[in-house]
Amino acid sequence: MSADKIYTMVVSTLALFLSGSLAIYTLFKDRKARTQSISDDYWLRKVVSPLAIEPLIKTMLETISAIPPDCCGPNFLPDALDAFMSKYQQDHRIQSTNLIAFGLLSPKLYDPASEAFDEVEDAVITYCNSNRNGLKTASGEPVEPKDKLAERIRTHLNSILQLVREYQSSLK
To answer: In 10 A of CB 157, how many CB atoms?
Structure first.
């Protein structure tokens, strides 16, 4: 045999070995990624969603519907603000504990979700305090109107749900 034929056979054999090894590696890597994805999806669907996501959505929507009228509303009662705030704080404590379930999936998911949830609490406290004190703008409108609070809650809820959606998309 000539040197050219030996060289060609060696290169061909190496290429065949390399492509076979790469195929086997890819197969095992894909299996591992699929197993991990199934596990993560399980945790999201069976643990985090029922424990944290569904109650969070329910609580936020109930909070929006329970916001008492602002200080310029005809049915404004300071006592209604106090009752609303008391109920909200109870619900907030429970939900903030439930949000820990996000940490089971990823700290990168828990931290921004918790931050958005705390911003809702800040908005509710600001609304209640400014309306209890009757703070109004120069035009006589409430400094913190009811609609503005409802929009803030919806915005933060959407941002939390977007975080979950992005996390779930990253699993595929």
So the answer is: 20
